[in-house]
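User: Is it possible to get a 3D structure for a protein together with its bound compound? The compound here is 5'-deoxyadenosine. I've pasted both below.
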Amino acid sequence: MNQPGSTPAKDKEKTTKDYASYFQTTYQPPSLKDAKKRGKEQINIVKDFAVDEDLKKIGAGKKFYIRTYGCQMNEHDTEVMAGILSDMSYEATTDMKEADLILLNTCAIRENAENKVFGELGHLKPMKVENPDLLIGVCGCMSQEESVVNKLLKTYDQVDMIFGTHNIHRLPQIVKEAYFSKERVVEVWSKEGDIVENLPRVRKGNIQGWVNIMYGCDKFCTYCIVPYTRGKERSRRPEDIIEEVRHLARNGYQEVTLLGQNVNAYGKDFEDIEYGLGDLMDEIRKIDIPRVRFTTSHPRDFDDHLIEVLAKGGNLVEHIHLPVQHGNSDILKLMARKYTREHFLELAGKIKNAIPNASFTTDIIVGFPNETEEQFQDTLSLVKEVEFDAAYSFIYSPREGTPAAKMKDNVPHEVKKDRLQRLNAVLNEISLRKNQAYLDTVVEVLVEGESKKNPEVLSGHTASNKVVNFRGPKHLIGKIVKVHITDAKTWTLSGDLADEKAGVV
Ligand code: 5AD
Ligand code: SF4
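Assistant: Yes, that's possible. Here is the predicted structure of the complex:
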């Protein structure tokens, strides 16, 4: 296990170059090798988070801007960091140019996600030159990677702070250090992670809320960096989660999404109780909140009890995101997904039987090492058989430190691109067909806001997670309304308010 992070000395004489050598000798970067050793470290539940008195005013008169990349877990972490910064008297801004503190909350899942961040840091350099008091921080999954930290230290001297996914609660101290030392602060704990319960939070809007139910992932799919960047699976206690959902319900939220990298492994780490995601959902469905979602599931952990509970319906929505990743059992084995094509098809059939109106979405990777045309065809045939409502499809991207990165990345890029296009054509054809089945039906839509393309149009989701656009008065935002579907495209439905006078269900 690494030492729990460290910060460089505050020697003002040192140049950036000196610091690079300093880090090499005394700073231990996050280690993927260490992250892989699971199980030894005690998980602590910390309930006494508070911003130190002397740091509560440190941001007075200053503004912060956080750019979030990647998944909902990062969105969630951004809400927490915004909460902490607000407790330090910082004010949020949506204009990067007027910010005194900029954080990039990064994603490491694919190379192009990382390239976007390095590109953005390039754009920030002139801002830093113009305003040396501007503080720039890199946090999130990329900062858990030793190669990234080394690259930032070596070539991105505009970065003042680098901190990891386990260090978010240390943000006040990190910012203080960065201000007063005027030198770079690096704090990346390569540990399995604690659970910090009472962190402040500025949620985006008051319609939909994320509720983290567990952290980390122990699945170690061979292509994936997440188990290394997010630590060991650790579940929050049910009573803390239920209290948070109740709090959102009391505050008028219409929807919660229970979050975890591997959400249906929830509870497996409890030593004192036998309690899983099915049990938790069975309790949450009794809370008076119209919609409850959860993401992301792993097929291997999708047990019968969970299906049974989801089939009870009510506020448990009929949308299931179930990443399959591939349709060929040999590739699934190389990916260490721990299920076969047949097992996935059986599971999908079981869920469809129990919840006949369920909509299914998935994640798929093409061009994994050694993937043959025939094996790729298995992905196409699986997609056709399951008929996913929608899917995120990706070209395989080798991630340093993962087992797959040691395999020869032997599918030529042109072939990968071609397979992705062919896969998307099949997926899109099915999505369109599935959406067309909604024509001339009336659906319930949670109105989330104005459509991004046209402020005259309102936009929201059905319980089955279809995007619906329609014209209506703005006061419907945050309400669940009935919409008559008149048009169906590949990714969106549109229609008219079913009862313009009543409007609200
Ligand atoms: N290359 C491409 N796609 C990846 N994913 C995870 N790791 C990689 C990788 N190395 C995809 C998986 C996962 C989704 C969040 O990102 O499909 O489900
Ligand atoms: Fe990554 Fe998901 Fe596999 Fe965990 S289960 S290793 S997060 S793809």
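The first helix runs from residue 16 to 26. Residues 217, 219-221, 224, 226-227, 261-262, 298 surround iron/sulfur cluster (ligand 2) (CB under 6 Å).
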